[in-house]
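Tokens help. One example:
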Amino acid sequence: MPSTSSSHTAPPVPTGAVDVPCVLDIEASGFGRHSYPIEIGYVLPDGSARCTLIRPADHWLHWDRSAEALHGITRDKLMRHGRSVADVAQALNSDLAGRTAYCDGWAHDYAWLAALFEEAGLRPRFKLETVGRLLDERRLSHLGEARAAALAELGLQRHRASNDARVLQRALQRLALS
């Protein structure tokens, strides 16, 4: 039976005095106006991670087959194994309270996070920022290369929220050391 929530610890952070950011990623039902979050994954500075499938609210009906092909998550799987919107929002607030979480798709991730919290009737107790706030122009221009190197280093295969967050966090670590 697939797990809807899991915790993992990443390999040790590379040596050096590097501040490791909290990184968050969201998979969604699509990219249109009516899309919504279906999975949220994040990695904390200590390397621990959580990934949670989200059971769509009754009125969240939009479904894009091309998005499903990318992340491999079916609506049926969400209905069977996803946690309620309220449970996911409460868990995010508990785990991320007072933190800033960074993402690389801020415009989409912010909208999907807002949809989640609005549906749950809660306010986030953490801040979501773009990774561009962490990097100067030179380092930002090398983010794609650093992400590819991190993906190879970590050996992750599935395109899922916590994997994407872990790869982005490792890429940011690599750039901080460069």
